[in-house]
Design a protein that fits this description.
Layout: H1 3-14, H2 18-27, H3 36-47, H4 51-63
Helix pairs in contact: 1-4, 3-4
Length: 96
């Protein structure tokens, strides 16, 4: 599953765009420097997200939407089309 696919699935499961979840995380005081544990606990308790999906959001919350380009254009299971994740909802993603 690509990084973007994880975020799109999170949106389907929670009804919130990744950006809305990042905004909620910021309101809770999560951001750069926050360890994964507290973020994962919040996502599990409030939204029922497991570790895999949670870690995708941990990355975005702590490091932003830029991802490593090592999987861009690859044929692996984690391949993404571009190295910038779309956070404003799957329906509005111009990269599809």
């Amino acid at each position: 599953m690509s990084f973007q696919a994880y975020l799109d699935t999170i949106e389907t499961k929670t009804g919130l765009t990744p950006r809305q979840l990042v905004d909620q995380a910021t309101e809770r005081g999560f951001g750069p420097g926050t360890k994964a544990g507290p973020i994962l606990e919040w996502l599990k308790n409030d939204y029922g997200l497991g570790r895999g999906h949670g870690m995708a959001l941990v990355h975005v919350i702590t490091k932003g939407p830029q991802i490593s380009s090592k999987h861009v254009g690859s044929t692996g299971s984690h391949a993404d089309a571009i190295d910038m994740l779309w956070l404003d909802g799957a329906a509005t993603n111009p990269n599809r």
